[in-house]
Predict the 3D structure of the following.
Amino acid sequence: MTFEYSIDYLTWFGERKLLFKPNHFVRSSARLTNESELWILKNLKGRYALVVEVSENFDSYTIPAFEDPTEATFYELTWG
């Protein structure tokens, strides 16, 4: 059994997922799931950060924030 992989060098050598959200990042309103984070890694190229939000009834959830506003719009159209 043979496997073919195409390596995206921007993903391989770059730090795309940041541990903090810089002020200029655009936050999404769609909640993050495991599937949507894999979609971000596969389909988008820019940097992103994960932000933990707390709702009125103290439920916490995670949303992504993107450096490129067009990637935030693309994510919203797909997962929002």
